[in-house]
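Example S7 (structure tokens).
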């Protein structure tokens, strides 16, 4: 499942250049019985199968090269994966991702082995592999030289606690849909102010909680937010 994701694009180039290293391990390689069994029935009579603790503990103990490595169990009930978690994981020299399957993983893995329990969203996947793809991609692009221009990363949505401002390119007029005139003004201060306002506006529209959590809006940003709210109230109160 990982071959395609790791063979192309930014990740493929980073692996080729040796900027990152990703190793995929089959839990069956860490079993001791002739059937190479990695799962078993859950105690208590619930339907389905649960991943056993033995192969997971053995796998982590054998592949861990850094005693301070982050050991992440990927599960729906884990901490929500966001930009803050991405930055934390990017600070480790080794990150081990345990991909859950079936009905889940023996709880002792979470209690005694994993250092992080992470969820990529409030939904259930067929396995932890797609979640691992997301984490590998998000964390890797924060590492030096993986993305061509680190300046691009610094302007990502979430990097500064806001969504990115709208982006436009040619043609200037497409089917009557025109690019905002301020972008052609040559006035860099006005352009920067427009972009900041649009970032705050988009964040307020879709994720007001991000603005509330950030707590780092400047007095100028707060004025912009008040202006956006006034404009919104004005449109709401317009007669039909």
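Recovered sequence:
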């Amino acid at each position: 499942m990982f071959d395609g994701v790791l063979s192309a694009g930014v990740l493929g180039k980073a692996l080729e250049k040796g900027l990152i290293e990703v190793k995929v391990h089959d839990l069956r390689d860490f079993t001791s019985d002739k059937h190479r069994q990695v799962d078993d029935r859950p105690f208590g009579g619930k339907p389905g199968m649960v991943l056993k603790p033995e192969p997971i503990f053995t796998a982590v103990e054998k592949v861990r090269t850094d005693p301070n490595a982050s050991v992440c169990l990927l599960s729906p009930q884990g901490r929500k994966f966001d930009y803050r978690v991405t930055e934390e994981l990017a600070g480790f020299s080794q990150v081990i991702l345990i991909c859950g399957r079936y009905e889940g993983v023996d709880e002792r893995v979470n209690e005694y082995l994993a250092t992080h329990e992470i969820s990529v969203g409030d939904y259930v996947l067929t396995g932890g592999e797609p979640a691992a793809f997301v984490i590998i991609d998000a964390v890797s692009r924060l590492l030096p030289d993986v993305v061509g221009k680190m300046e691009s990363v610094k302007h990502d949505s979430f990097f500064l606690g806001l969504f990115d401002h709208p982006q436009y390119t040619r043609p200037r007029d497409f089917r009557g849909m025109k690019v905002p005139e301020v972008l052609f003004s040559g006035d860099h201060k006005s352009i920067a102010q427009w972009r900041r306002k649009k970032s705050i506006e988009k964040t307020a529209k879709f994720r007001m909680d991000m603005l509330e959590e950030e707590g780092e809006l400047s007095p100028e940003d707060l004025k912009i937010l008040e202006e956006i709210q006034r404009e919104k109230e004005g449109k709401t109160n317009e007669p039909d």
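Notes on this example. The CA atoms of residues 27 and 88 lie 26 Å apart.
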